[in-house]
Write a structure and sequence with these properties.
The chain has 16 helices and five strands. By secondary structure, the protein is mainly alpha-helical. Helix 11 crosses helix 12. The protein is globular and about 65 Å long. The relative contact order is 0.15.
């Protein structure tokens, strides 16, 4: 089924599922700290989505392919980052072995790049988590189809990436969200804070998420304690987070408005993924059963 972001943004059941996804993402970051460092800000995440979208689907209107000049031009056009930042990110992806140059190129002036197996695996995991959540929301069978047809990644990712990149609701859902998600590793910290929410009370002005340790966040995500404190300090000055009592010695709370910004962002992102799935996979006819499948069905 298709989803409307406006409906998901007020659906408490959806947000409960989102909190489960946040916990999954936090666990993924902890299991692969290097990945959390690479994609832990929105700018870097958008650049990764753009690079994969160019490689799999040519989201700039040309044939699929990932080249340094083409990548930087796309990033600059969509105001994601500067030309130099885009090229630095690409070099970092090559250094971390999430991307690699193709060995042979018919045009020596161009050096085509492709995602490595590690990058493809992380993309599949990211899609898996989101499709599983959508199945939980409407009882669909997306995961079963995705597991049977892993090649769907190449069809889904470009359409998802291109819509995410032009969505203001994904990129700028609110001031506190922007503070976290555009800071280095701020996206990881925000996911962690949201993952600490227990039962959501829509009527509450703020949600108590228990004690927060800056040292624990530092150790979990390989982030400096100074950076964590500075980011939390800015959010606290905005009135979006704070302590119930003595700072650093009491439970921590999140403002309802900050939570809603995160909720709105997730609603838009999940609506995009769900609707792309319907357009690309839902519109395709079911493959005809093989002889073996028909015999098995008859036996049952």
């Amino acid at each position: 089924m298709s989803f409307a972001a406006e409906e998901l943004a007020s659906d408490l059941g959806f947000f409960t599922i989102v909190l489960g996804c946040s916990r999954e993402m936090v666990a993924a970051y902890v299991g692969n700290p290097r990945m959390s460092l690479v994609f832990a800000s929105q700018q870097r995440w958008l650049m990764a989505q753009a690079g994969l979208g160019l490689y799999y689907g040519g989201i700039d209107g040309e044939q699929p392919g990932f080249y340094a000049r083409r990548f930087a031009a796309y990033i600059l056009k969509h105001e994601i980052a500067s030309h130099n930042t885009a090229l630095s990110f690409m070099q970092e992806m090559l250094a971390y072995r999430y991307m690699r140059y193709l060995p042979d190129s018919p045009d020596k002036r161009l050096r085509p790049i492709e995602p490595t197996e590690a990058a493809a695996e992380q993309l599949s995991k990211w899609l898996y988590i989101h499709l599983l959540a959508l199945d939980s929301l409407d009882g669909g069978q997306r995961i079963a189809t995705f597991v049977e047809r892993p090649e769907l990644v190449a069809a889904l990712q470009p359409a998802i990436a291109s819509r995410i990149i032009v969505s203001d609701r994904v990129r700028h859902p609110g001031e506190t969200f922007d503070l976290f998600t555009w800071a280095n590793s701020g996206g990881v910290i925000m996911d962690y804070l949201m993952s600490r929410i227990g039962a959501m009370d829509p009527a509450a002005a703020r949600m108590d998420i228990g004690p927060i340790s800056f040292s624990e966040i530092r150790d979990r995500f390989l982030i400096s304690r100074t950076h964590v404190k500075r980011l939390m300090g800015k959010a606290s000055a905005m009135g979006s987070v704070g302590w119930v009592g003595s700072p650093g010695k009491s439970n921590f709370w999140l403002l309802r408005g900050f939570i809603q910004e995160y909720w709105d962002y997730q609603a838009e992102k999940f609506a995009i993924i769900g609707n792309v799935w319907e357009e690309i996979v839902g519109a395709q006819p079911e493959p005809a059963p093989t002889v073996q499948q028909r015999l098995t069905s008859a036996a049952l």
